[in-house]
Protein 1
Amino acid sequence: MQTPDKPGGPPRRTFLAGLAALGAGALLSRDGSAAQTKAAAPHRIDVHNHLGPPSYIADLGPKVVARGIQEWTPAKAIEDMDKAGVATSITSISPPGVWFGDATAARRVARGSNDYAAKLASDHPARFGMFVNLPMPDIEGTLREIEYGMDTLKADGIVMFTSYGDKWLGDPAFAPVFEELNRRKALVYTHPISANCCRNLVPNIGDGAIEWGTDTTRAIARMVFSGAAARYPDVHIIFSHAGGSMPFLIERFVNMAKAPQLAAQFPEGFVGVAKKFYYDTAQTSNPAAMSALKKVVPVSQIVFGTDFPYRTADEHVKGLKECGVFTPKELRGIDRENALRLLPRFRT
Amino acid sequence: MDAHPSRRELLASLAALGASALAQAPASPRRIDVHHHFGNPAWVALTNVKKMSGYQTWQPYTPAKAIEDMDRGGVAVSMLSVTTPGIWFGVDAETIKWARELNEYGARLVSDYKSRFGLFAALPFPNANACLKEIEYAFDTLKCDGVGLLSSYSNRWHGDPAFAEVFRELNRRKAIVYTHAQVPDCCQSLIPGVSDITVEYNTDTARTIISMIESGRAAECPDIKFIYSHGGGTILALPGRFLGQQASAANLAKQAEPNSRLGQLRRFYYDVAGSNNPIQIDALKKLVGTSQIVFGTDFPFGSAARIAEGLQTCGLTADELRAIDRENALRILPKFKT
């Protein structure tokens, strides 16, 4: 297994890119991060941080894996964290994930990725945690990987995509997995992906632009209205990207939960369920998204996420500070304290 | 948690929507409703036969009911348009006939109820040539005020090359293009127990907005006045990805480059139907500014008085409310100035 960020330094290309990112001023100090964050010790916890295990990249091939992931190194991840006061990042695989229709292959790729993520976490104690990557929708393989990931690798939780094919989280097909997660009182981090319905819909527009934010919304809808959220109360769920487009559909969600056939099931309405989920800030640390989310759920449900390596931690720190939506105390909650309720082992 | 003020406000406003609408009837009707649906008797009957989305609400439809709702909600003028599922059921000839009959019926309402209605004509999409013919008839003969489109037709969004000539012609005419949400073919009945209206509808508006901008069609058609329904749908959720760094507070506070993504978003108009809550209004103000927000009701699915009441809870100043109720719309519909 490749050991990250060991002597010899990063390859030249990485090094040059790193310099460019740091900017000229940073060259003056050995540790480029010092100038920017000297006041605050690293304290942030990033729940939305992607990694690129070499075995995963080799298995899927360069045509399938995003360039940011192909070029990912632990050193780059740590550098990005250090620049923005991130103490700990919880890693997960980003789309397209490990499922391409073959359960054996999916199990193998998930296992390789999980072993790598666990090694990364143990090589850098307290800097990385991990969410177990699963061969969903292969239920049997998933149950096995949950056991391995949680019991042997001591993972912090598991990661699931918002949908698999044409089924969203909350679908009865996934009940055995949620029953097991509920039994374990597990933390489930979710990440959007393109559902079957919604690949390459609008010419020249990547699925990430529109469809991913929507798929998170669909998963929320499915979890809430199928009753799964109530059925598995001990599963703690983080939805990425500020809940996707959910906050902007709030009126429709609220009205749906008030419909005569549903009202009895939702005595506290849609918001009563939605405010039990957590929501990360990745790609959404802007005034529109954050003010909307804050109006739907209490700030206690918002956790810091960066979407590294697609975006940087620094721009999220800046975005959250400047969006004008949060008080300093609320920011401390988002940066760290809210996540610690879900990830108590990182308490120092 | 319960002391969370903005959430309480939201709930209050949402509750207000369900309560009996008692917005004070204004001294003189002033609002301009850009999002107001109609159907001729044959189309209304069709919704019933096909059990199309919302068909119960259409049984029956009369212009008198529309006027009554307008009067209760202080609406001076409503712009008529055909709503989802529209008139495309797979056969061009039928769609062409529907467009013509609906447009003639709409034009009759405009002349029968002097100065109470305007017309956004239906077009026989996806047949571009037929659209060009109907544009000519609707503008030159029926004197329509603009066209009313749905957000997609058979999984094609507005920036699709197949529709380019239609938009070029509308640009030549400096037309108003009103776009209403639609559940696209891709995304019907995706989730058991969750109606398409909850998630898919407003998502499709975002798709067509992004399609127009990214295809270059919006920039190619600078003279079209675009109005998107329901506050632009989920476009408000997407700036982080669609605009990237441009969505930062500092950049949103600046004037946008005219042909940038943000610049395009800021020249479009967005109606408040189904979006008259503090979340969407606040996001619209932050992203595009109050000047681009226009009044819309979604009649007969929404009512003017309730929409007006909801707007009262969105923290808007009296000036902002006046602009949204009327003045912003008058910039693109000057003939209704009194």
Protein 2
Amino acid sequence: MKIIACIKRVPTTDLQPRVAADGKSLDATGVQYMTSFYDEIAVEEAIRIKEKQGGEVTVLTIGPSDASKEIREALAKGADKGVILVDNGWSGRDPLATAKALEAKIRELAPDLVLLGRVGTDRDNAAVGPMLATRLGWACVTDVIGLEIADGKGTARREADGGLEIFAFALPAVITCQKDLNEPRYAALKGIMAAKKKPVEETPCPAGASQAEVVKLALPPARKAGRIVGEGAAAVPALIAALRNEAKLL
Amino acid sequence: MTTLVVFVEQADGAARRGSLEALAAARSVADSVVAVLCGAGADKAAAALGKYGATRAVALEGGAWSPDAAAQGIAAVVKEQKAAAFFASATSTGRDVAPRVAALLDSTLFSDCIGLAKDGAAIVVTRPWLAGKLEATLKSGAPVLCATLRRNVFPVKESGGTCEVVRGAALAAGKATLAKVEARAGGKLDVAEAPVVVSGGRGLKEPQHFALLEDLAAAFGNAAVGASRAVVDAGWRPHSEQVGQTGKTVSPQLYVAVGISGAIQHLAGMKTSKVIVAINKDPEAPIFKVADYGIVGDAFEIVPALATEIRKIRAQG
């Protein structure tokens, strides 16, 4: 079984962002990066499938050469190879341009299964996985919290608004991973040492024009200052009055 | 004359509310709005869409649900109508289908949009980055502007309009097909679509105390229970209820945060709620900085008292 896990480096979730002087981009000063939360789940699932069924896990990313840090973390957990499609402007690519760049490398590597996080926790589009599958002409299930693969076929449990949806599909397939799918492991020291010897290929990312043009980037409008209506259960009538008379709710 | 295609989700012949919101939003930026519906019951749901802003509705019958087959059918309608834009509601299904439609149209996608405007003939969208810590205003250079719209942001509009209903080509078999649905117990509302969200955090001390919030949600009648990351990670509540940067982003009419201190990742996910109420014993908790109304004190006393008052009001009708 040949598996590719796609990861993206994103700003850490504790970031209090600032807008750069151009009014259109994120001020990168002092920004720390991490592997997008859901992509860690994709890496974990890839390693678990390999451990059960045998095979090889390649971790694929688009980013600066610096992204080798995130790739090495995945290798330390048990992935076998890393590929960085080097693009210093990676964060400006829209989801379609990202899907196209990944598609070219994935066709070359010809895996059975591609795993991605359900959404990147920077631009929140949740689009690259299904776009990639559409371009490849493969099956795709998104927001997956349970996955079984056997004999070239798969079953995936998807977290939907009203409950769970269970999808059947044939490989090759693209799966986007939701939080309850697994609990990502921490890398062991042995894994960290072994990761240093694992191959990481750096290759230029094919150029791709973004169709999304940022006109303006801003902090959300500040909320009007609120007030404490009181203390304890005795304040409930004051809250009800405020909700009815001021907020026009209830 | 701008034509916009909207994917309208329906179940048993009734359109989902998020899709009606998307129709109204579409009508605000386009003269002609074509609704596309999939599956059994599509004709019936289509017939009612005129009064919600559709000028035409196309029903695509098909077998077992498949997001890839639906996307093929919808993209074909967008091409046939020579539409300038395609919208879907940012529901679970909308967010599954829309990127595939966009890819088939060689167009990028703007997900979970919270603002729409016209700049000359072009449509400009506003959408969150970093789960709402930033808001980006974007223009599309794509052949078709494709967007999903956040629920509870764009109001449904009813009019006396009618629409022509046509039957499109049946959907082909898909690559991934729905084999089974396990509905959530009691037909509960999803936290992302409920008009009222009652959320709890560590301040509730023990998982069984969420019964208080379940009761408050029941008192409202149209509420869903949400949770902070801390209590989801602790296994008290399912991830499907998590509000915040690694959970769901919500914009209800009313968000009640109980025993939630207000970590930046949580605030990002609920700050666009219309009205925020915070109940917390710590008057310095950051949640009070975004709340419209706060009560300082013991949630175990305040929440039941609030539920009682809400029940009284609802009983009065």
